[in-house]
Amino acid sequence: MTYSVKEMFYTLQGEGFHTGRPAVFCRFTGCNLWSGREQDRAQSVCQFCDTDFVGTDGQNGGKFKQPADLAQAIATQWPSGRGHRFVVFTGGEPALQLDDRLIAELHRLDFVCAVETNGTLALPDAVDWVCISPKGVAQVALTRCNELKLVYPQVDAPPERFTELQADYRYLSPINDYREQTIVPARNHATQACIDYCLSHPEWHLTLQAHKIVNID
User: Fold this and answer.
1) Mean pLDDT of the chain
2) What pLDDT digit, counting tens, does each position of 52-67 carry?
């Protein structure tokens, strides 16, 4: 298959369990819950996405015909000679393209492979870290994950709906208006709602989009 990548870049993970960890982000194009086109947002399952995953014109984006080609492109983003290699596949929905061959190539290059998914599609068995972020009424097909990161509040996806989903860690992430250019957590009602829920349900932890707060990619 040909892999279509919107963008690739080296940064710090901004949310969830691995907050602050250096990582190469590989954003695949396409999603099964929204076309990425503004005219389709109101009719989509996921209506609050603030990510551009359309096309291959982003930083280091492009099409890669072989898994080794994409793996090498990811490896070039990592500082030369440094260990603890970590790549996060995201989107869009990475499960539409991520496969065992690509994971195998990255393992050969000593990468730990993580994925951020809406959980509606199967994933390669060899993925090292799975983060599920459920969206709206979409049914989660996966039964377990390393971390469950729920954008909150969502009318159609309350935390109680995912009680049976096995997760090592559970996080609530405040929903933000996709039209906003900045976020001010102290003034964000969703942030306070997350705080209140976590205090009354201590199995859930608060996570914020630290990369936006400190203004990094």
Assistant:
1) 93
2) 999 999 999 999 999 9
| Interior/surface letters 24-48, b for 16+ CB within 10 angstroms, e for the rest | bbbbbbbbbbbebeeeeeeebebee
Residue 91 has what pLDDT?
Answer: 97
Q: Please state the rounded mean pLDDT for residues 137-146.
A: 98
Q: pTM of the predicted model, to two decimals?
A: 0.93
Peptide bond into 153 cis (omega under 30): yes
Which helix or strand (DSSP H or E) is residue 211 part of?
helix 210-213
Catalytic site positions: 25, 31, 46, 49-51, 116, 211
Share of the chain above pLDDT 70, in %: 94
Domain that holds residue 54: 3-213
What CATH number should be reported for the domain holding residue 195?
Answer: 3.20.20.70
Domain count across the chain: 1
Nearest one of 55, 66, 125 to 91, comparing CA atoms: 55
C-alpha R_g of the chain? 17
Using H for helix, E for strand and C for coil, what is the string for 50-81?
Answer: CCCCCCCCCCCCEEECCHHHHHHHHHCCCCCC
